[in-house]
Amino acid sequence: KAGVTQTPRYLIKTRGQQVTLSCSPISGHRSVSWYQQTPGQGLQFLFEYFSETQRNKGNFPGRFSGRQFSNSRSEMNVSTLELGDSALYLCASSAGLAGMVDGELFFGEGSRLTVL
Amino acid sequence: AQSVSQHNHHVILSEAASLELGCNYSYGGTVNLFWYVQYPGQHLQLLLKYFSGDPLVKGIKGFEAEFIKSKFSFNLRKPSVQWSDTAEYFCAVNAQLRGNTPLVFGKGTRLSVIA
């Protein structure tokens, strides 16, 4: 079956702009988790959605937001972009809640955001 | 909140050498533990997981990890590495609390295997 699909794969924005990233999970998966990956910090947890409800949120400013639709597809938005937001944004889906017995994460290829 | 420490940023080994990558976590309660691997140009994928039972768990490609509760550790091992094991390895922890807690990753260890 198809894997996790993230769009766009690459994008370049300037400071102050906003960006929306999209994630289509594996069919049947109800949970979508978002992570920010940078060389120095590894994977930092942004948020997890399960059945359209935000279950957890990481330690990121309010400029980072997300949502999940009834078909489990998810979007994340970053407003008022800063240079430090340049990173690879990874989406992962799981059948159940991430980290639980049925919560094996399946990752997408990521959306690489560059902020100039 | 729980945190995960991976002691080695970059490990370089020759083929056939033994591997041990350290992982320590901060949460004192019951945890679910994972190792994920990212091969060059590929997605992150699950290597192995521990929920309960035998603290020595075996994963794909000959990897194993041992959960030592008293040391808050979940180290990854492989007796003999191959060039194809070159990748970045991430330890992840999920605290078993009432309600769901996020899966927290360490910063990763890059493994380079040389011929």
Can you describe this structure in just a few lines?
The complex is a heterodimer of chains A (116) and B (115). Chain A has 116 residues and is mainly β.
Give structural notes.
The complex is a heterodimer of chains A (116) and B (115). By secondary structure, chain A is mainly β. Helices cover 0% and strands 52% of the residues of chain A. Chain A has strands at residues 5-7, 10-13, 19-24, 31-38, 42-50, 53-57, 64-68, 74-78, 87-94, 106-107, 111-115. In chain A, the strands form two sheets. In chain A, strands 2, 4, 5, 6, 9, 10 and 11 form a seven-stranded mixed sheet that branches. In chain A, strands 1-3-8-7 form a four-stranded antiparallel sheet, with no helix packed on it. The relative contact order of chain A is 0.32. The mean pLDDT of chain A is 94. Chain B is mainly β and 115 residues long. Helix content of chain B is 0%, strand content 50%. Chain B has no helices and twelve strands. Chain B has strands at residues 4-5, 10-14, 19-21, 24-25, 31-38, 44-50, 56-58, 64-68, 73-78, 87-95, 104-105, 109-114. In chain B, strands 2, 5, 6, 10, 11 and 12 form a six-stranded mixed sheet that branches. A four-stranded antiparallel sheet of chain B has the order 3-9-8-7, with no helix packed on it. A two-stranded antiparallel ribbon of chain B has the order 1-4. The interface between A and B is medium-sized, with 29 and 22 residues.
Question: Any chance you could write out the topology, listing elements then pairs?
Answer:
The complex is a heterodimer of chains A (116) and B (115).
Chain A lengths: L4 E3 L2 E4 L5 E6 L6 E8 L3 E9 L2 E5 L6 E5 L5 E5 L8 E8 L11 E2 L3 E5 L1
Parallel strand pairs in A: 2-11
Antiparallel strand pairs in A: 1-3, 3-8, 4-5, 4-9, 5-6, 7-8, 9-10, 9-11
Chain B lengths: L3 E2 L4 E5 L4 E3 L2 E2 L5 E8 L5 E7 L5 E3 L5 E5 L4 E6 L8 E9 L8 E2 L3 E6 L1
Parallel strand pairs in B: 2-12
Antiparallel strand pairs in B: 1-4, 3-9, 5-6, 5-10, 7-8, 8-9, 10-11, 10-12
